[in-house]
Write a structure and sequence with these properties.
This protein is α+β, with helices and mostly antiparallel strands. It has one domain. The protein contains three helices and four strands, in the order H-H-E-H-E-E-E. Strands 1-2-3-4 form a four-stranded antiparallel β-sheet, with no helix packed on it. The chain starts with a helix and ends in a 13-residue tail after the last strand.
């Protein structure tokens, strides 16, 4: 939670970096893609907000507000080829 609070005072342009970035929905796991269709969320990409080595929040940004779609504690929604992520 403290990490999320720390983002509140920052601009999105400052938050977006290598570890916090947009992910094309076609790169998400098949289960995640199916779930997006099921809940009728049609976006080309979602924002991945890295909170720890493996913990991610996925969502979309609208009018400067981040709407959380997934809490991904084990980095399973979008697998990475990098070590320790």
């Amino acid at each position: 939670m403290p990490k999320l609070v720390s983002f509140e005072q920052r601009k999105w342009s400052d938050i977006i970096s290598d570890n916090k970035h947009w992910i094309d929905c076609w790169k998400l796991s098949k289960e995640a893609q199916n779930r997006l269709n099921e809940i009728k969320l049609y976006y080309d990409s979602l924002f991945s907000l890295r909170l720890t080595g493996t913990l991610r929040l996925f969502g979309y940004i609208e009018n400067g507000v981040f709407y959380i779609v997934w809490y991904d504690p084990n980095h399973e929604i979008c697998l990475s080829n990098k070590k320790h992520t």
